[in-house]
Structure formats: C-alpha cells, structure tokens
Amino acid sequence: MKKIIVLTGAGVSAESGIKTFRDAGGLWEGHDVMEVASPEGWYNNAALVLDFYNQRRKQLLEVKPNIAHELLATLEENYHVEIITQNVDDLHERSGSSNVLHLHGELLKVRSTSNENLVYDWTKDLNFGDTCETGSQLRPHIVWFGEAVPMLDQAIEITKNADILLIIGTSMQVYPAASLIHYIKPHTPVYFIDPKPNISKNSYNNLNVISEIASVGVEKFLKLLDELQ
C-alpha cells in the first residue's frame, strides 16, 4: 500500500473558520504573536496568554471539520496515510484521520510548566491554580516561538518514507516544519495545494502545484490519484 504523507498548515483549517497567522498581517486574533506564542510572552503576561488560549479553545469546540479534512480521511481507504500538521486543532482527528502528528502542539491539551512530559487532555478554561500532579502550574501544550519542536525527528522519519508528499495550506516559510520537504526520497511526487502558492515548479523534482483553497485542491488531488491508478 502506497504511503501518502500529508503536511498541513493553517489553510486547511481556515475554511472551518479558524483564523490563520498570515492572513492577519502577523497578528493572531488582534494580538502580536510574540505576546501570546512565546516563552517571553508567558513570563511577561501569563494572564493574557491563558485568556488567549481559553478563547481559542472555546472557538475550536464550536467549529467543525471541513471538506478538506473529510476528504483526507477518506484517503485511508486505499492508502497508508500519515498527516503531519502545524495546526494545533483536532479537526483532522474529528474528521476520521487516524495517524496525525502535531508538530506545534495541541490546543485541547495542557502540560506542566516543570515537566513537559506531564500532558493532560483539557477542554475547559485553564486558570491560575490549575496544577499538574506535582503541584506546578499548567500551561498550554503549544510549541511557542523559540521553543524546540519535540516531534520534529519523528516527522522527519515519517517524511522519509513518503511515496507521495502532499502539502496543503502552508506557506512553507515556518521552520523547521518547512524543512521536511528536503527529507523525501529523490523523485518522490510532491503536490502543493494553496490558493496563493509561493513555490516554483522548478523548485523541486516532480512538483505539481494546485492553486486552490484546501477543499477544492484536495478534491482535484484525489482525481489526479484516480487517473494515476
């Protein structure tokens, strides 16, 4: 069974109503991203950070997976599919995808500020005084700017095994996630779906650019797969 490795970014979740970084001029829901997505932001104003993610968590629980998420889940019927996502939402999982790796953390989880291995499922507000089992304050389970990406090595190993690489809704400007494309085997077909692709067809061997929003692009990708069979 062929392995399709899918790299997804904010553009996949945008059609579900979740805001993206790049569409807001560097602001996320009206905030400078460094205020709410960096260790410095946490140390300077933890109350703001907690409130920010509480609002994002509430929003996530109100939205639903879109057609792109659902179509990607159907790929598992005929292919071995693994999704590596930069998104912190759970929309891939809710749509039925069974192999999802979150590079940048998960909004519906929190972790201890003293032991990053103490991670808990969390769907309510996170407040001061909410502590882990050892008594330390809990924080959002998000990889902030300036922090290491603990799942990167696993993502690299997954990408190395791709028979087909599908990239959807990411600018390919955020590192180290953008570096994953360099780990595919030579001559691996690459499909890039984005309404405003900033990637050249001459950039990589076997690159196919689909200049569409995620839902339309994934549908076109599935048709191309059918034609290749």
Low-confidence stretches: none
The amount of beta strand, in percent, is: 15-25%
Computed over alpha carbons, the radius of gyration is: 18 Å
According to CATH, the fold-level topology of the largest domain is: Rossmann fold
Element pattern in H and E? EHEEHHHHEHEEEEHEEEH
- Helix/strand-derived category reads alpha/beta
Cα distance spanning the termini: 12 Å
Q: Provide the residue-averaged pLDDT.
A: 91
As a percent range, the share of helical residues equals 25-40%
- What do we call the CATH homologous superfamily of the largest domain? TPP-binding domain
Top CATH class of the largest domain:
Alpha Beta
- Domains counted in the coordinates: how many? 2
CATH architecture of the largest domain: 3-Layer(aba) Sandwich
Q: How many helices?
A: 8
Strand order in the sheet with the most strands: 5-4-1-9-10-11
Judging from the principal axes of the Cα atoms, what is the shape? Answer: elongated
DSSP strand count:
11
Major sheet characteristics: 6 strands, parallel
